Amino acid sequence: xxxxxxxxxxxxxxxxxxxxxxxxxxxxxxxxxxxxxxxxxxxxxxxxxxxxxxxxxxxxxxxxxxxxxxxxxxxxxxxxxxxxxxxxxxxxxxxxxxxxxxxxxxxxxxxxxxxxxxxxxxxxxxxxxxxxxxxxxxxxxxxxxxxxxxxxxxxxxxxxxxxxxx
Length: 166
Fold this sequence. Notes:
single chain, 166 residues, mainly alpha, three-stranded antiparallel sheet, 3 strands
C-alpha cells in the first residue's frame, strides 16, 4: 500500500471520527443558544439557524438537507449568517460542476494534444523513411547503371556463358 492511497484513507478515517465525535456530543448545545443571535449560534458547526423562528437547532445530519417542516431552505443559515442554505447549495453545486467540467476539458485537451503530437511524429518518421527509401532506390539504380557501363566497356554486357553453373 503506497502513500497515495494511504493519505485519503487516513483523511476519511479522521473525517468519520470527527463526525461521530460531533454526533455523540450532547444534542442540547445548539438548543441552548436559542435566545442568542445567528453569529452566536453558528460558532458551533453542528448548529443551524432559522431566521423565521429565530431558533438555533442541531443540524439534522440524518436527512442531509434540513426538512422544510424544520426550517425552509431560504431561511436556514449554516456556516455563514449572510448566506442562506439554498444559495449555499446552489453555489457549491455550480463550483463543483465548473471544477468537474474544467477537469474533463483539461483531460480531453491533454489526451487530444498527446495523440496529435504522436500522429505528427509518426507522419514525420514516415516522411523520413520514404525519403530514405527513395534515396536508396536512386543509389541502387545509379550503381546498376555504373555496373552496366563497366560491363559494356569491357564487353561483358552479353549473356555470361558461366551463368549456367551458378
